[in-house]
Amino acid sequence: MYLSHLPYEAKLAELDLFSLNYRQLRGDLIQTYRIVISRECALEFADVFELAGTEHLRDHPFKLQRMLVHTDVRRNAFLQRVVGAWHGLLDEVKLTNFLNIAFWPGIQQRCGTDL
Q1: According to the lineage, what is the superkingdom (predicted)?
Q2: DSSP-assigned letter for residue 103
Q3: CA 85/CA 64 separation, integer angstroms
């Protein structure tokens, strides 16, 4: 194939695709939205996440609690890696009923790539 000699980033640009990190983060945020906000998921909120235990939240009422972990396996698990990205989203995005993450402001910067 004519793309086999190109580096990964060049292949993505040529094929007009997003990076694997971006696609993983996007999928994680969609799943988190379904669990936390819309409850359109087979997973129950209480079985997966825990809300932050403070009443003085300056943000939205959906601030998630990050659990203390000691191993890389747990640190890279879905429940751990999604909390920081979830908190980085704008409040109006988290409180909306419109689930189209492609247009969420700031999601591309969360991956550390310029897409």
Answers
A1: Eukaryota
A2: G
A3: 11
